[in-house]
Request: fold
Amino acid sequence: MLQTETREHTEPRETPDAAAADATPTGPPAAPAGCRELFFQRCVWCGTPAYRRSFCRACGSMTFSRERSAGVGVVVRRNGHAHHNTWFVAMDEGFNLLCQVTGTAPFVVGVGVRVTVVRAGAPIGQGLPVVELTESARPLPRLW
Reply:
């Protein structure tokens, strides 16, 4: 039979501050709000780029290297309702990214517009990366 070692804490902490002081952070430090650095993964075996994946979509490997993105891409399509202003962006490195467009109205953004990263998402995965248009908005075609 397999025996495991168990530990019981018999001494209670004196104060909640002492318990918080003993805790060590488990994740990476929080990024500053204006962080423009965007990191992505590249499969070590086949070289396929990905963003926040647990395994490679091409070969199934779970071994990735971390690389810095240039932060430039092209809008591919809208995701959801216009008031959320979320879009899929094809980055120049070859991976797709769901992000929010800032600095313009949702109806001005169109497919094929170049964007650049303004703020990358939090390192723990909370929030979407934020991008802005790099070229001025083109006039919308008249359909009537």
